[in-house]
Amino acid sequence: MVSFAVALAAAGAVIAGGAPGSAGPLPDAAAAQPGPTYVYKVHAPLGQQSQDLLGRGFDVLEQRDGDSLFVLGGKDEGTRLQQAGFTAVVDQVLAPPQWTPPAKKSQVDAADINETFYGGYHTVNAHYAHLDAVAAQYPSLTTLVDYGDSWKKTQGAGGYDLRAICITKLNAGDCALDPNAPKPRFFVMGQLHARELTTGDVAWRWIDHLTSGYGTDASVTALLDSTEVWVVPQANPDGVNIVQQGGNSPIYQRKNANGTNGSNCGGSASSQLGIDLNRNTSSHWGGQGTSSAPCDQTYKGPSANSEVETQALQSLWRSLYKDKRGTAPGDAAPADTTGVVVSMHSYSNLILFPWGYDSTQKAGNDAPLRKMGTDLQAIAGSGWTSGQPGEVLYNAAGATDDWVYDDLGVASFVWEIGPSSGSCSGFFPTYSCQAGTFWPKVKPMLTYAADKAAGPYATTTPPPTGCDTRTNDTDVAIPDNGAAVTSTITIADCTGNASATSQVEVHVKHTYRGDLVLDLVASDGSSYRLKSSNNDSGDNIDTTYTANLSSELRNGDWKLKVQDVASQDVGNIDTWSLTV
Ligand SMILES: [Zn+2]
């Protein structure tokens, strides 16, 4: 898309002179998007001005450039911005739509897997046919879950099932809708905001990467042996259905398709029906960054958790994760909490984590969340930023990542994938950007986040103290051809299990060392043979033995046990040392 930076007064002439494209037949009233669409760059520094802009119902993009935010709208939107007291310039003029909707079908069939729009993006039916195909090909790795119905389906007006796939090396109890299931769970979803096309495509590739990589890719194999990976590629299928009806000029539908409170919305980018599913959860519903006007893009809905898509997600998450957190904003989930949830959005190259409703509030697990944020930022590369939404973008209440952390204590993130400028920027990047730019960047981010599901808040174990080499140099006489004698080393303050290459340094005075049998005895009574008897007639033992003590706790009493099993020669344990 060509970028214009034209002052509003001058842009007015451009707008008036631009001939709107022929709209053609409209496939669906909800999909109407007449005339060209404009991106306005608006002066709105972090803080009050940003929240004002959101509060007035402008379609504020999930993008920031220094002190500027960006607003999507028709040709009148610039005037509205000026009247509201904002300084704005036209940043981009987007091509008017040319309607080439994909064929409508009453149900998904296998052939739909090839159904695409806008140069390769998959339709909802294609995504669902893909889930079915993957499940059929990899039955030992996959479980399909229908976790609810879209709003249109509940109305008997078309619509879709809400579908998830659980991917893991399946054992008993895996992928059950039970928070006590054995493996930790990584959950990722795409297109909760329907028009954010990149996120659905990333989900598709992630599913293929995992299922085709099991048994051949070591990191995928290790992940699926230890972890469940849940993917919801189309979290808002009704919304995506509207987007895809634009064909080669996708519709800028962000919200779901529930028109109950917005049936008279104009259909332009700044006046659309539906509820913003990322403002509708019951966590701080109705707070900053939400709108009460049904046609606004950040419309929070008539009540908290009013939407069937939101209800279904909240219910699914409660069936996947235990509640590990108290109710105060600063309450922390414990270090043994498992699970990571990522909601993929676009764009602006941001890693966001709770709290989103108010950046002056810090999560109880702020430090590990922030650390994961900076790790992900480093993996993503230059141009990425991480922080709470209000620190880097704007405060926004009722989002799913806040809900997941608020209700369950699970580590949760929003990723805003994609640059703010350049050929792969925007909601609708050229399809070749997916394989060439986004997937190589997001794949290692997903891998990192999935690996973290086992313990996102686990602190790195500090090097234990009290683990230095210990020595006992008290002599112990060894009776000739008699009972075994022992010398003890006690280890305390050295937590964890001993090494598989523990070192036992032994010095014994003796005139015929072949008579001697040496064992190391752990505090639980387990015995490790260091040396057997033989015909070696030499004097003394001065040897360091390596023992695999990895099944033993380091702390406890360790005994060197020595027995003389033949007559005539005598001696004593001189000194011995143990490094566990
Ligand atoms: Zn979004």
TrEMBL record:
<keyword id="KW-0862">Zinc</keyword>
<keyword id="KW-0121">Carboxypeptidase</keyword>
<feature type="compositionally biased region" description="Polar residues">
    <location>
        <begin position="253"/>
        <end position="295"/>
    </location>
</feature>
<dbReference type="GO" id="GO:0005615">
    <property type="term" value="C:extracellular space"/>
</dbReference>
<dbReference type="GO" id="GO:0004181">
    <property type="term" value="F:metallocarboxypeptidase activity"/>
</dbReference>
<dbReference type="GO" id="GO:0004252">
    <property type="term" value="F:serine-type endopeptidase activity"/>
</dbReference>
<comment type="function">
    <text>Carboxypeptidase that possesses the specificities of both mammalian Cpase A and B. Thus shows broad substrate specificity, being able to cleave Cbz-Gly-Leu, Cbz-Gly-Val, Cbz-Gly-Phe, Cbz-Gly-Lys and Bz-Gly-Arg in vitro.</text>
</comment>
<feature type="domain" description="P/Homo B">
    <location>
        <begin position="460"/>
        <end position="580"/>
    </location>
</feature>
<dbReference type="Pfam" id="PF01483">
    <property type="entry name" value="P_proprotein"/>
</dbReference>
<dbReference type="InterPro" id="IPR008979">
    <property type="entry name" value="Galactose-bd-like_sf"/>
</dbReference>
<feature type="active site" description="Proton donor/acceptor">
    <location>
        <position position="416"/>
    </location>
</feature>
<keyword id="KW-0732">Signal</keyword>
<keyword id="KW-0378">Hydrolase</keyword>
<keyword id="KW-0645">Protease</keyword>
<dbReference type="InterPro" id="IPR000834">
    <property type="entry name" value="Peptidase_M14"/>
</dbReference>
<feature type="region of interest" description="Disordered">
    <location>
        <begin position="253"/>
        <end position="307"/>
    </location>
</feature>
<keyword id="KW-0482">Metalloprotease</keyword>
<feature type="domain" description="Peptidase M14">
    <location>
        <begin position="120"/>
        <end position="452"/>
    </location>
</feature>
<dbReference type="InterPro" id="IPR057247">
    <property type="entry name" value="CARBOXYPEPT_ZN_2"/>
</dbReference>
<dbReference type="GO" id="GO:0006508">
    <property type="term" value="P:proteolysis"/>
</dbReference>
<protein>
    <recommendedName>
        <fullName>Zinc carboxypeptidase</fullName>
        <ecNumber>3.4.17.18</ecNumber>
    </recommendedName>
</protein>
<dbReference type="Pfam" id="PF00246">
    <property type="entry name" value="Peptidase_M14"/>
</dbReference>
<keyword id="KW-0479">Metal-binding</keyword>
<dbReference type="GO" id="GO:0008270">
    <property type="term" value="F:zinc ion binding"/>
</dbReference>
<comment type="similarity">
    <text>Belongs to the peptidase M14 family.</text>
</comment>
<dbReference type="InterPro" id="IPR002884">
    <property type="entry name" value="P_dom"/>
</dbReference>
